[in-house]
Design a protein that fits this description.
Blueprint: H1 9-17, H2 21-26, E1 35-42, E2 48-55, E3 57-58, E4 63-68, H3 72-79, E5 82-89, E6 94-104, H4 107-114, H5 119-131, H6 144-154, E7 165-179, E8 188-195, E9 198-204
Helix pairs in contact: 5-6
């Protein structure tokens, strides 16, 4: 039989996302590999956009990720604050799909999270801040040399979060957990629908 899952899908996802102790022990810097999620959004015009984001926290409420503003991602979420994300662990034969509302968290929470990000990403956040309204058009041409010059100009400011850097939480009301099968055993897909404070569990074809 495929792997069994409990009745709290977010707890299951957090367990799946936690790296084995052996992974961090053998990593050059001792850091855990990032948890990546393909995040799909759509703006007011309904056009879909997708990108990979780093999930920095998974708890009983939802999954947190970060963005500067304005970006296509933050613009979409302002116009249509719902999203769907996919997390995949191919070696383990696991996939999670989460869908629901996205909320923007307070500035203090964002500032604390900012300090945990790699230096390169903190510098890049200041590039977004400095370009500001030049990014109002999501398809604006931003030459690579402008980005690199902006990174150099940001040195010395990376220990303070820019005002445009923010934290979002995807708060799922629907979750699907998929587990691989084998030659004679079908894969398993379990759906969860949020009903107030509890999750309603449903089986589904894989």
């Amino acid at each position: 039989m495929p792997e069994a899952v409990g009745d709290d899908p977010l707890r299951t996802i957090a367990t799946w996302a936690a790296p084995p102790a052996s992974t961090t022990a053998t990593a050059p810097d001792g850091a855990a590999p990032p948890v990546l999620m393909a995040l799909a959004t759509a703006g007011a015009d309904g056009a879909p956009h997708n990108r990979t984001v780093v999930v920095t926290s998974i708890d009983g409420v939802g999954l947190r990720f970060h963005s500067s503003t304005p970006t296509a991602k933050s613009r979409d979420l302002h116009e249509n604050p719902r999203a769907s994300g996919v997390l995949l662990w191919p070696d383990a034969g696991r996939q999670a799909v989460v869908s629901g509302a996205v909320v923007q968290l307070d500035a203090a929470t964002s500032a604390r999270a900012y300090l945990t990000r790699p230096r390169q990403l903190r510098l890049l956040a200041w590039v977004y801040e400095d370009l500001g309204q030049d990014l109002a058009d999501p398809w604006a041409d931003v030459p690579e040399d402008v980005v690199q010059a902006g990174m150099r100009a940001a040195v010395g400011r990376e220990d303070t979060a820019p005002p445009s850097w923010t934290t979002f939480a995807l708060v799922p009301d629907r979750v699907e957990l998929w587990r691989a099968g084998s030659e004679l055993v079908a894969a398993a897909r379990t759906r969860f629908l949020r009903d107030g404070e509890r999750w309603v569990r449903r089986g589904a074809l894989p």
